[in-house]
Design goal:
This protein is of the alpha/beta class. It has a domain at about 5-145: Vaccinia Virus protein VP39 (Rossmann fold, 3-Layer(aba) Sandwich). The chain is built from 7 helices and 7 strands, in the order ααβαβαβαβαβαββ.
Length: about 200
């Protein structure tokens, strides 16, 4: 087992003990497969947590790739920084502390892969705020889009989750019907939408 694999296992254990939501193992494999195929050079991650998916992305991106990752929990960002440093990937990662909804409009530069795994009710807002920063052919990956299966069938969903479910449905509706995107929704883990941006000309 290589060092990075050991660190990922340590991160899984930490997440389990401290109840930190991280991407599922099945979702992590799909994330790496899509990233490896895209060979992105400039990645935007919305929702760092402890840096588990950040490390997965770093391992699969182009060798000269860079990741910008946003996390509003400063304590988690510090933990992520330590894990990424142990894995020798910290120099390729730029960390931003703050609310993604506020940070995104101020970002400069453009991205060829965006991974969304933050506040579930804000996915569509996040996407709208990064649209002008997407390179043609960019890949947008959104995790947990089926939200425990309730996005497909919300008849038994608790009332407190209705708004999140409604907004995730709106996100999926947008990326599957808007001609600027070609989207496949995978039933892996808690659901993952992989959208390929076709460019502004397809409006």
């Amino acid at each position: 087992m290589d060092k990075q694999q050991q660190i990922l296992i340590t991160m899984q254990d930490y997440a389990n003990i401290h109840m930190v939501p991280i991407i599922s193992r099945e979702g992590g494999r799909l994330l790496q497969e899509v990233t490896a195929a895209a060979k992105p050079v400039s990645i935007l991650e919305i929702g760092t947590a402890i840096g588990y998916s950040t490390l997965l992305l770093a391992a699969a991106m182009a060798p000269n790739g860079k990741i910008t990752t946003i996390e509003q929990d400063g304590a988690r960002l510090e933990i992520a920084s330590n894990f990424l440093a142990q894995a020798g990937k910290l120099e390729q990662v730029s960390m931003i502390a703050g609310d993604a909804g506020e940070v995104l409009p101020a970002l400069t530069g453009s991205f060829d892969l965006v991974f969304i795994d933050a506040a579930k009710g804000q996915y569509l807002d996040y996407l709208h705020k990064v649209m002008d920063k997407l390179l043609p052919g960019a890949v947008i990956i959104a995790d947990n889009v089926l939200f425990r299966g309730w996005v497909l069938d919300d008849s038994n969903a608790p009332r407190r989750f209705r708004t999140i479910i409604k907004r995730l449905k709106a996100y999926l509706d947008f990326v599957t019907k808007d001609k600027r995107f070609k989207t496949v929704v995978h039933h892996t883990g808690d659901g993952m939408a992989v959208s390929h941006y076709q460019g502004r000309a397809n409006i």
